[in-house]
Amino acid sequence: MATATVTVPASTPAAGALRRPRSTTGIASWFTTVDHKKIGLLYGMTAILFFVIGGVEALLIRLQLAAPGGNILSAQEYNTLFTMHGTTMVFLVVMPTAAAVGNYFVPLQIGARDVAFPRLNAYGYWAFLAGGLFLYSSFFLGGAPDGGWFGYANLTSDYSFGTGIDFWIIGLIITGIGSLTASLNFIVTILNMRAPGMTFMRMPVFTWMILVISFLLIGAIPVITIGLIELFFDRNFGTNFFNVVKGGDPILWQHLFWLFGHPEVYILILPPMGIVSEVLPVFARKPLFGYSFVVFSGVAIGFMGWGVWAHHMFSVGLGPAAVTGFTLSTMFIAVPTGVKIFNWMGTLWGGSIRFKTPMLFAIGFVAMFIIGGLSGVTHGVSPADRQQTDTYYVVAHFHYVLFGGAMFGIFSGVYYWFPKMFGKLLHEGLGKLHFWLMFVGFNLTFGPMHVLGLQGQPRRTYTYPEGMGWDFWNLISTIGSFTIALSIAVFLYNIFRTARKGEMASDDPWDARTLEWSISSPPPPHNFDRVPMVEARDDFWHQKYGEDNEGRPVARVRGGSNGDAPGGHDEHIHMPSPSYWPLVSALGLPFIGYGLIFHWGWLVLAGLLVAWGIFAWAMEPDVEPESEPEPELEPELEGVE
Ligand code: HEM
Ligand SMILES: [Cu+2]
Fold first, then answer.
1. What does the domain layout of the chain look like in residue ranges?
2. Which ligand neighbours the alpha carbon of 398 most closely?
3. Tag placement on the chain: N or C end, fewer CB within 10 Å?
C-alpha cells in the first residue's frame, strides 16, 4: 500500500506560540481535537448530559403538579425550574444535538475529510460548553434565572431581582457565538467541500437540512443577541429600551425574541426531519418519495419561517390587520410541513418495512409530529388562540413538536448511526423497550395537557387548588413523565451495556444508501482513503445495487469498504492538526461574563486571556497530527517542527 506523501508548509512558529500538540489519541487529545467526528461526539455527550439535567428539572415540576396544593417547590423555585428546563432543552439539548450529528455526518455524507474551518469548529463547541456551564453556575452564584425561556421584558428587566437574568442573557450570548461559528463552518463546508459529482440534488436530505438551519442561525442569532444586549443594558446601565414609563416598549422585546424564536423552532425541528428522511428509506428499502419536494419544502420553511413570528403575540393587541396577516402566514407554513409528511408516507407505502429501533422512532416522530402540527394549526386561528395561549394546551403543543418531534427524530438518528460511530450495534431488545416506554410515557405526559389547557389550567403556575377538575389528568401526566424517565434509564443502560459487551457492527449493518456507510465503522481519522466520485443520489446504494427489468435491486459484485476500494489511497492526505487555542480562546468568554455581572477586574483578566488565545491561534504553524503515517520529508526541512 503506497504511503501518502505530505508536505509541511515552510512557516516557523511565532515566538511565544505554543508548539502545536501532535497526538490525536488519549484524554488530552479531546481538549485539542479539531477532528469533526470527535467534536461531534463532544457535542453529543454534552447534549445527553444536559438532557438528563433538563429532564430532572421537568420531573420536579411534574412532582409539584401531581396533586393540588403541591408544596415540594416554592413559587420561586418553580419559576426557576421551568425557566432552566425550557432554556436547557432548547439551547443546550436540541440545538447542540443538530451540531453533534451534523458535525459527525455532514462531511461523511458529502465525501469530505473534515469541515472547512476545523479550529473554528472546535471553538464553536467550547463556546457552547462555556455558555452552558456559565448559565448553570448561576445556581451557585446568587440564583438561576426565573423569567421563563422567552424572558419577557419588563418581567426580566424591572421586576426580576438578583443576577439570574443576567446569567441567562450572557449565557445565551455565549452559546450564540458557538452556534454562529458552527453555522458558518457548515455553510462553507457544504458549499465548497463536496466530493466530485456530489451535486446539490444528490446531497442527502439531512445535509440539506443542516444547510438550511445554518442560514437560519446566521439570520436569527444576531436578532436575539441585539435584544439580549438591550435587556442587559436596561438591567445594568439604566437604559430604557423596554421601560414603558420612560418611553421604551416592552412589546419590542417580544418582537425581537419571536423574530428569532420562531425560526428557532425550525432550527430545532428541521435536522430531526432530515434524520427521519434518511432512516425511512433505508428501513422501507425504497428511495425517499419526492426527494426534491422534501428538500424544497425544507427550504421553503426556512424562508416562510421569518414571516409568522407574531402568532406568539396574538393576545398583546397588535390590531386586526396584523393579526389577520400573521394568521394567514401561519396557515400557509403548514403547507410545506404537510408536503414532507405526505412524502414520508409515500416512502413507507409499498415498502418492505423492517421495524428496527431507528425505524420505530422515525415512525413515532411522524405520528407525534402530526399531532403537534395539528394543535399548532388550532393556535393559528387567532380567536381560538385567545383561549389557548398561556395554558397547558400550548405546553402540550410544543412538547408534541419538540419532544414527540425533535427528540423522537434524534433518538432515531442515535440508534441508526451508533454502529457507524462506535462499530457496535445498540441492543435491539433494549432499544424497542426504550421506544415503547417513551412512546407510552410521552403520550401519558403530554396528551392530558391538551384537556387541562382547554379546561383552563394556566402554564407557569406552581400549584392549583382542589375542585378545579384538574387533579386526575395532572396525576396521569406526572406518572407519564416518570415513565419517560424510565425509558431514558433503559437507553443509558443500553449504551453502557453495548460499550462493555455489545454486538460488533459491520460497516453497513442496515444495508443503507449514503456515503457514510461506504467506509469502516468507526471511520478512520481521514474518513476516505480516496475521495469518492459520486455518480448518483444515494450513491452508495447504487454502488451496491443495479436494477433488473422490473426495477428490483440486484446486488453488484464489489470489493470491501474504503481501503479495499479499487485504487487504494489518495496520494496526498492533508489533515488538520490539533490545537489548544480554540479551547483557550473560548474559555475567556465566561470570564468576561462574570466580569460584567460582578466585577470589572474579571473583565480585564478575561479580555487578556481571549486576546492571547486568538493571537497564538492565528500564528501557530500547520503541522500534521501524529496519527498520520510518517511523511517522507524533503531533506532541507528536517528538524522544523
Ligand atoms: C423529559 C420530559 C419532559 C417533561 C416531563 C416536560 C415537562 C414540562 C412541563 C410540565 C412544563 C411546563 C411548566 C409550566 O409552565 O408550568 C414544561 C415547559 C417547557 N418544556 Fe418541557 N418537558 C419535557 C421535555 C422537554 C423537551 C424535550 C423539550 C424540548 C425542547 C422541552 C421544552 C420545554 C419548554 C420550552 C418549556 C417552557 C418553559 C417556560 O415556560 O419557560 N421540554 N415542560
Ligand atoms: Cu411560532
1. 1-34+507-579+620-641, 36-505
2. 1
3. N
H-helix or E-strand containing 190?
helix 164-192
What amino acid occupies position 448? P
Ligand nearest to the CA of 53: 1
Task: For residue 82, give the ligand 1 atom closest to its CA.
Answer: 38
Ligand 1 center to residue 490 CA distance, Å?
21
C-alpha cell at 187: 455553510
Quick one: what percent of the chain has pLDDT higher than 90?
82
Q: Which of 213, 268, 216 is nearest to 97 (CA)?
A: 268
pLDDT level of residue 550 (50, 70, 90 thresholds): confident
pLDDT on residue 621? 73
- 75, containing H or E segment: helix 75-87
Residue type, 433: L
Residue whose CB lies within 8 A of the most ligand 1 atoms, among 51, 72, 81, 89, for a mutation test:
89
State which H helix or E strand residue 271 sits in: helix 250-284
Asked if residue 631 has pLDDT above 50, the reply is no
403 pocket-lining for ligand 1 (C-beta < 6 Å): yes
Centroid of ligand 2 to alpha carbon of 112 (angstroms)? 35
**Tell me, what's the pLDDT at 87?**
98
Instruction: Give me the chain's average pLDDT, please.
Output: 91
The CATH homologous superfamily to which domain 36-505 belongs is Cytochrome c oxidase-like, subunit I domain (1.20.210.10)
CA distance linking residue 512 with residue 515, whole number of Å: 9
Q: For the whole model, what pTM was predicted?
A: 0.92
Residue 548 burial (C-beta neighbours within 10 Å; 0-12, 13-18, 19+): exposed
CA angle 55, 30, 178 (to 5 degrees): 60
Alpha carbon distance, N-terminus to C-terminus of the chain: 27
521-540 pLDDT, tens digit each: 999 999 999 999 999 999 99
Ligand 1 contact, 145 CB (< 6 A): no
Q: Which contiguous run of DSSP H or E holds residue 290?
A: none
